[in-house]
Amino acid sequence: MEAIWLYTPLSLLSLIVAFMFFSRTRTRGDLPPSPSALPVIGHLHLMKEPLHRTLHSLSQKHGSIFSLWLGIRLVVVVSSPSAVEECFTKNDVVLANRPAFISGKYIGYNYTSLAGAPYGDHWRNLRRLCALEIFSSNRLNMFLSIRREEIKLFLHRLYQNGSSDFAKIELKSKLSELTFNILMRMIAGKRYFGGNVADCEEAKQFRELISEIFEYSGASNPGDFLPILRWIDYQNYEKNLERLSKKMDSFFQGLIDEHRRGKGRNSMIDHLLSLQKSQPEYYTDQIIKGLVMVMILAGTDTSAVTIEWAMSLLLNHPEVLKKARIELDTHVGQNRLIDESDISKLHYLQSIILETFRLCPAAPLLVPHMASNDCRIGGYDIPRDTILLVQCMGHSQGP
């Protein structure tokens, strides 16, 4: 009996190694160059944080297109502008899918959200919905007063914190709170950070929930690359995701039910519920919750990080800050705050924003794509089911 228990894991490991060897041999082709790999884990041991800097370092050694084996998954990393253009013009449909990571099953409502849905009619409908009903100019202009009010509250808090002589102010968390309050007031008519919070307990639940969602949605799970780790539920990852999924679904469903009872305001949820009345078979509660989740994940941290980088760059380049202030004084004056309608006249400020995007992209790596069929990029073979990672930082800072 002891011998059986000894040989079973060894046999299982041998089968895994053999499977990986033969699967890699079958898909070898003319793959992009790759560093030396270890048995079973491939290049997983090279993946150090921050990941985008690790991949940038590898691209310096192996070129602007290189491949990695992360467990059983083939990953191709692209960083040159010409290769990126080839990915999203010539191969745009082939590379339109997303990898089916475990987090997408639980946080992405079983791969039905815009961020994780496979390319097809459902994904196109979601994209059309976002473009026409959620992020259109008319829809966003309806929430202009919310953005104005939250910015005034933000500046007032900064003034209070720094009014007594010189004071050190930590901007990162405050910018994050600003973007969360703006977005959640647009989505649900509620603010969950700072003062004027209507329901402190609900706000606390939201903050804890969002912290967990960002933790699990941004983490790389080894079980996505080594199936045996998913089979044993390594570090209870999937169990924790399932628990988080239920908690998230309950919170978002509560918001929807509250607005359905007429207790909400003129928010995005209200608008989506009005669409649900016309097409209840498509605009289900699950679709609405998935859209809310995507808006939170995509629209909060990215905005706060970009503003933080812009402030840092301006403080480190005082001559640029001086020119920006002169432009603001000329076109806006010193008697009022800048308004969104002023942006079109502030060309130097627009250049500062674009340069911030170039130097410090909020997402140094694009959301992963996956090849639905064999294709070629930069003269290399890209087999079906290959994961594609696109580096923004590498080519955006090139000559």
From TrEMBL:
Record Pfam families: p450
Transmembrane helix in keyword set: yes
Keyword annotations of the record: Heme, Iron, Membrane, Metal-binding, Monooxygenase, Oxidoreductase, Transmembrane, Transmembrane helix
Xref: SUPFAM superfamilies: Cytochrome P450
UniProt cross-references to InterPro entries, sorted A to Z: Cyt_P450, Cyt_P450_E_grp-I, Cyt_P450_sf, Plant_Cytochrome_P450_Monoox
Keyword Membrane: yes
TM stretches of this protein: 6-23
One example GO MF annotation: oxidoreductase activity, acting on paired donors, with incorporation or reduction of molecular oxygen
Protein's recorded name: Uncharacterized protein
Native source species: Nyssa sinensis
Species classification: Eukaryota, Viridiplantae, Streptophyta, Embryophyta, Tracheophyta
